[in-house]
Amino acid sequence: MLNSLEEIISEEKLGEVTELKGNLNLFSKLERLLLEDLPKLKTIYHHALPFPQLKEVSIRGCPMLKKLPLNSNSAKGQRLIIEGEEGWWKDVEWEDESTQIAFLSTFKPR
Asked: How many CB atoms lie within 10 A of CB 10?
């Protein structure tokens, strides 16, 4: 069942949750995001999300995942490590050039 997952957070579901809980940062305590063996996963979320405590992102076996929910603001003041396969990393699509530059030094190949 999980190997057919294409999206982690849909805009519709996130909208419902934030409506119910107010405008809280749902990921304020998330420190590690590990995604493995999700061959059909295309997106975590379509837009950048705030992850103030995020320290590590690890992606393996997710060849369709081309965008991360990060922008240049996501890198500010953080020591983030992004782990993944080199082939996957070179195909990641960034929001803009400043985002790509901000995250180039965070990559750690596995």
From this structure: 13
